Amino acid sequence: MIARLKRHFWAVLAVGLLLQFLTTFNRPLPFPTPGQELVVLTHAGPLTYEAGEAGAPPSGLEHDLIQMFAEELGVTARFKVVPRHEIRERLARHQGHLAAGWLTPTPDPEFRYSPPHLESSDVLVRHEASLPVRSLENLNGQVVVANKGSRQYRALLQLKEQLPDLQVEEFHSETPLDLLEALANREVEVALVDKAILDIGLNFYPMLQPGLELGEPQPIAWLFPADGNPELYDRARAFIDKARQGPALAQLRDRYLGHLERLRQMDVVAFIDRISTVLPRYRALFKEAQLETDIDWRLLAALAYQESHWDPLNTSPTGVRGMMMLTEETADRLGVSNRLDPRESILGGARYVVMLRDQVPESTPEPDRTWMALAAYNIGPGHFNAARGIARQVKADPDSWYEMKKVLPLLARPQYYQRLKSGRARGGEAVVMVENVRMFYDILQRHEPPYRPLSGLRAASEGENAEKQRAGSGGTGLKPRRP
Fold first, then answer.
1. N or C: which end of the chain has fewer CB within 10 A?
2. What is the distance between the alpha carbons of residues 197 and 447, in angstroms, rounded to a whole number?
3. 14, HSE (Cβ side, Cα atoms, 13 Å)
4. Residue 4 included in any domain
5. What mean pLDDT do residues 109-118 have?
6. Has residue 136 been placed in a domain?
7. Could you tell me if 334 and 284 lie in one domain?
8. Among candidate residues 355, 340, 338, the one with its CA nearest the CA of residue 295
9. pLDDT digits (tens, 9 = 90+) for 115-153
10. 439 and 295 in one domain?
11. 62, 307, 344, 403: which is the annotated catalytic residue?
12. Which of 155, 180, 187, 179 is nearest to 168 (CA)?
């Protein structure tokens, strides 16, 4: 009897401790104070959260906006990257203070939303070899795919109520771009995707064809548990309202989406083709330039493509020549003796970018500092510095590329350039040039891996040491090979 009572006591105690643990586990997270963390649920994607390459910081429009909010709170943001379809469930269990994953509000009593900070629409997309969808009725009997847990999947389920023969399928992916890749590979025939994601993806997969937009543009907002900390929710609402009234949101949108509509589809197709047919001849030279200047070789390759389409003999009527289209004066200054030699031109152009970037004040953050250096590459540092002066006159921020894109075209207007020592310049062309380079760079980042020479040397060294140890311990008995 006593033994049975003891077992019963310990069983009741274990159940009680488990219930206490579960209650504590599901308790709302407290308001983060300085020195604490703001825990944010998100999912991987170009507009939400992408890990940086080669030690670079993470990026993403939602990531950057959250960082601004955390900075205002005086805390550190910690991102939990989870599958998109798990975000709501995890947030309901209070595994984060909020969720920022390019989410659209839904009528769910478990959650509440911030004011929308942006909006986006849903668009049907297909492979160019597939039959076009000219009306929604054409979807009856077809299979249409959307990412699991997405706004688009919910929209398709609603559409199925009108079109009973419509077949809706979920697509399981790590990032929203995976579905576009499946479309490009003809693994999927028709999909419903977010238009902003499609704008990004079209520059990687130019064979895709946008079609009908489904419904009205939808708001993008942050998601909070209904029983979450009310002070944090109020602070977030105030932050979003302030961001919408100021330039912050417009600048973020421009950083991630503003350069995507510059290139025509045929331009993207030609560029992707030359990545495989022309770039291999010069890849090693761009990597050598990265070693010397610490500039990503893919950015240098993007600049060279914009300047010459990777033609080392290119010459313009104005006298600029070579792969990086250097003037004779600039080439002499950089020690380039033969502008038509691809190695000399690439190394010289890379050094010139570094020189121009160093002339941009340190108050200018990256990546804006690099974009401004590229603008100066196009119109010359004198004209670019003049544009910074104009920016101050018109009360624009000379440290913001978003602002300078509006100012640079003013260099072609008489009321501005007549007062400048540097004279007139085609500042609008500089803007187009930089935006094109940004797009070529994005495409190269998708198609070409980063160059990490130190990691390669480290791996080779570790392999050599392991081989030495095997040889010394009676392994193969062979002398270690040296790379």
1. N
2. 17
3. 6
4. no
5. 95
6. yes
7. yes
8. 355
9. 999 999 999 999 988 888 888 998 999 999 999 999 999
10. yes
11. 307
12. 155
What does the alpha-carbon distance between residue 167 and residue 215 come to, in Å, rounded to a whole number? 19
Instruction: State whether 464 and 414 are in the same domain.
Output: no
Predicted TM-score (pTM) of the model is: 0.77
Q: Is the dihedral of CA 65, 69, 72, 77 positive or negative?
A: negative
Residue 86 burial class via C-beta count within 10 angstroms: exposed 0-12, middle 13-18, buried 19 and up = middle
Q: Is 307 designated active site?
A: yes
Instruction: Scan for tokens 């825990």, then name that residue.
Output: 39
Say how many domains are in the chain.
Answer: 3
Residues 426 and 280 in one domain: yes
Positive or negative, the CA dihedral 371, 374, 376, 379 is negative
> What is the token pair recorded at 254?
């421009």
The string of DSSP codes covering 245-309 is: HSSHHHHHHHHHHTTTTSS-HHHHHHHHHHHHHTGGGTHHHHHHHHHHH---HHHHHHHHHHHHT
Q: What pLDDT band is residue 3 in, cutting at 50, 70 and 90?
A: low
Q: Among all chains, which residue has been given the structure tokens 């300085």?
A: 34
Q: Do 233 and 293 meet the contact criterion of CB atoms below 8 Å apart?
A: no
**Residue 454: strand pairing partners:** none
